Amino acid sequence: MPELGWDEVTIRLALAAVLGGAIGLERELREREAGLRTHLLVSVGAAVFTLVSAYGFADFRYGLETGITLDPTRIAAQIVTGIGFLGAGAIIRQGLSVRGLTTAATLWVVAAIGMATGAGYYSVAVIGTGLVLFSLYPLRQLAYRAVVRLRPEEGRLVVTLSGGSSAAPVVEELERAGVRIDSLQLDESGDERVVVAEIRTPQARLGAELVDRLHDLEHVRRVEWIA
Fold it and tell me: What are the structural domains, with CATH classification, of the chain?
């Protein structure tokens, strides 16, 4: 079994600390449950376990003559399942929503990066860190912009008409825009008729455009969009 010198061990552990810390810094800046120190420690710990698993038993005799076999991946393999307990601690449930899933995933990935660094697989560790950092910020922004454009927008449309005016033109205009009307309510207030519609638009920001379109209709006095 090959042995590592102090310089190589130092390089591997230092690189594990740097790569894990880079991901942890991003989490720290976003004020997440697990930050710089946690990710750094997970990465270094995974690297140490990998080094111990692969090189820590060099003094033991093993082979066919002794009948003892050595699997250098046995200790490192437990990191994959063991890190799940730490990741579970970062997940918080608040009512119907769940927070911390991304942080738990970064802890899991950081452990993998630490294992790759401990094994001397530097290219995988560095490229993996780059992909994780890209997915945490630039990809998040791109995905958000894409989803916002495609996600239906829900809101309340309040249209004030002249007293005695029909609400049919308003409904027809909404149907032409492809809007789904979940509920429609008519209220009489003095010399005004108020139409309150709970709607769902096929695309984001259409609600604001509907305000201008409805303003152009006859007998429409005011239009308000509440998202």
Answer: 6-147 (no CATH), 151-226 (3.30.70.260)
pLDDT digits (tens, 9 = 90+) for 91-137: 766 555 567 788 888 899 999 999 999 989 999 999 999 999 998 88
For the chain, strand residue ranges (E) read 92-94, 97-99, 153-162, 180-189, 192-201, 220-226
Query: 5 CB contacts (<8 Å, ≥6 apart)?
Result: none
- 10-24 pLDDT, tens digit per residue, is 999 999 999 999 999
* Longest alpha-carbon distance in the chain: 102
Q: How far apart are alpha carbons 82 and 22 in whole angstroms?
A: 22
Residue 182 region by backbone torsions, left for phi larger than 0, else alpha for psi between -120 and 50, else beta: alpha
